[in-house]
Design brief:
single chain; about 350 residues; alpha/beta; Rossmann fold; 2 domains; two-stranded antiparallel ribbon; 10 helices; about 15% strand; globular
């Protein structure tokens, strides 16, 4: 492992307002690459990729609208610090880094702003919406949204919302859950946490690697927990609602080793890795051994109730997923472990 570069400050992992200086970082990375004889990533004989899922401010800090604190309350802050250390110490081993960006707009099916009650009353976050809720009229899509979602056809939108909930319940992975507004495109909460952005840019400059971004979650009528596939692909009338991210499947599975980190282990990490595992099962189950899950660089969604308890605690779902991945042949590792050689 390489030493930590002089600019790294672990306290920055807890600072919402921290942002790296790209110009200074590029110069420092060039010097660091020369000092440690780091070659361009394109010359790597063994391709090791890091997938960072949704390492964004809204998930990474208590100031964020959907902070992933885990049961300790320090979850994502400590995860980000360990992840940055992992990148710096393995700068010469990591070929490329891909960061996903959860990207949302004001009215989407998983936001309370999309819904209203039977009498038009507003709906709050942190509640489930069942197919029965929609079928009975207890909850319905806001009627004015039909004007820009389906040419004003309110009946079509209501049928689609009910169909969507039915599809989720039939799949058995999730029920529709209404989240606080988060990762709104153009807002501060959408940006990567500064310590993660700093590490990925330093790697890009030091290894001459493009380090890609993958945007997900912008479709108003489906969730996109997974960067690889939306939760529902079809409309109630048989038309196409959304598509799987085929090129990303191919790129990730072409790596000799793939490391996965990010937020949250109970939702977007879980769904992305589950989709990846499904594709591995279809192609070649032996590929599972190439996937390394950085268990100390991710946390589960836990929503405190302010009285010492929790409104919601998805830790068991994350733990079940980890056990499932390990049973399939994926490796559960820590940021301090040596990178697969």
């Amino acid at each position: 492992m390489l030493p930590l570069p002089p600019h790294f400050d672990p306290d920055h992992a807890a600072r919402w307002d921290f942002a790296p200086d790209p110009t200074a970082l590029a110069a420092a990375a060039a010097d660091w690459a020369h000092e440690h004889e780091l070659r361009a990533a394109a010359a790597d004989e063994r391709r090791v990729e890091l997938l960072v899922i949704d390492g964004q401010r809204d998930f990474s800090f208590p100031q964020g609208t959907l902070y992933v604190g885990g049961r300790s309350g320090r979850g994502a802050v400590e995860d980000s610090e360990r992840l940055a250390r992992f990148v710096y110490q393995n700068l010469g081993a990591l070929t490329g880094i891909t960061c996903t960006l959860d990207t949302h707009f004001p009215f989407q099916i998983f936001f309370p702003t999309f819904w209203e009650g039977r009498d038009g009353e507003p709906i709050g976050p942190h509640r489930e919406v069942s197919a029965d809720d929609v079928r009975s009229g207890a909850l319905r899509p806001r009627r004015e949204l039909a004007a820009w979602l389906c040419d004003g056809d309110q009946a079509w939108l209501a049928r689609q919302a009910q169909f969507y909930c039915e599809q989720l319940e039939r799949a058995g992975k999730y029920r529709l859950y209404l989240w606080p507004l988060h990762c709104l495109a153009g807002g501060d909460g959408h940006a990567l946490a500064g310590v993660i952005q700093e590490a990925r840019l330093f790697h890009a400059f030091a290894r001459r690697s493009p380090n890609l971004l993958e945007v997900k979650g912008g479709h108003p009528l489906t969730e996109n927990y997974s960067v690889l596939s939306p939760e529902v692909l079809l409309r109630h009338d048989g038309g196409e609602l959304a598509q799987r991210n085929g090129p990303l499947y191919d790129r990730l599975l072409a790596a000799d080793a793939l490391y996965v980190a990010g937020q949250a282990s109970s939702h977007c990490v879980r769904s992305s890795v589950d989709d990846l595992l499904d594709e591995i099962t279809r192609r070649d189950p032996a590929l599972a051994s190439r996937v390394h899950v950085l268990v100390d660089c991710m946390s589960a969604v836990v929503v405190p109730d302010g009285a010492g308890g929790f409104i919601a605690d998805f830790t068991p779902q994350a733990e079940t997923a980890l056990a499932r991945w390990e049973a399939a042949g994926m490796k559960l590792v820590r940021a301090s472990d040596p990178v697969a050689g």
